[in-house]
Amino acid sequence: MRVPIIAGNWKMNKSVDESIELANAIIRGAYDVKNVDIVLCPPFTSLSDLSEMLADSDVSLGAQNCFWLNEGAYTGEIAPGMLKKAGCEYVILGHSERRAYFGETNETVNKRLIAALGEGLKPIVCVGEKLDEREANKTFDVVRDHVENGLKGVTKNDMENVTIAYEPVWAIGTGKNATPAQAQEVHAFIRELVGKIYDKAIADQLRIQYGGSVNPGNAESILKEKDVDGGLIGGASLKADSFLDIIKKAASAGK
Ligand code: 13P
Predict the structure, then answer these.
(1) What is the pLDDT of residue 255?
(2) What is the mean pLDDT of the chain?
């Protein structure tokens, strides 16, 4: 019922030329894939070139962040309207690297989310606990806090355009993925929570991606879980072969 969504978060990797080469290989390799939404999130500098390349394909474009105002004296920030005009359909918000290194809080993530939705972008909102929080049995408290406060003021209608990415911080870039059972447990918790905040219909249609050391070897078992509706892929999205392999596993997850 929910179409899986596989997004590549390229983070601060790939020059414009390298982005074009990688996107070309992905478009070619994914041309016959059905029933998976594919999103590429390159650095800002590659967005407009990729937007032209992706225009005639089924692959969508996303950015890795945006500000909450649409213009003004905010050196270094990018407005949601600019992303929309540059051809973006999606935008990643609240990634743990932004929370850890750039002072993002639930409050700033929420402001960015409301602004992005206002411009018709489809936000991918990242939530997830750190290792010490998991070890202190605080996973559900942290995820609840990220979801409840991150989504504040988002209407039911707007929720149709929101994807949540569960990314346990201890699994990002570490090669230590959550087990399928660990992912499913938190995904089910998020869906239930969204059901309480909104209603069952909104919760049922919500796509919840897993992110954190997803690779061709572990993708299938994670993507098969009932409440896992795709992946937000870092390292393995930087090579066409591994990203395409994960996309194909999502297509054959049989849900
Ligand atoms: P890795 O796949 O490299 O662990 O990164 C995950 C991530 O942060 C995606 O947003």
Answers:
(1) 65
(2) 97
The residue whose CA has the least distance to atom 5 of ligand 1 is: 234
173 lines ligand 1 (CB under 6 A): yes
**Separation CA 177–CA 174 (nearest Å):** 8
Q: Which atom of ligand 1 is nearest to the CA of 92?
A: 10
pLDDT, tens only, 195-231: 999 999 999 999 999 999 999 999 999 999 999 999 9
**Is any ligand 1 atom within 6 A of the Cβ of residue 172?**
yes
Q: Is 95 annotated in the active site?
A: yes
Distance CA(223)–CA(216), nearest Å, equals 11
- Which residue, among 119, 108, 101, has the nearest Cα to 149 in the 3D structure? 108
By C-alpha distance, which of 224, 223, 243 is closest to 235? 243
pTM of the model: 0.98
Fill in the amino acid letter for 236. A
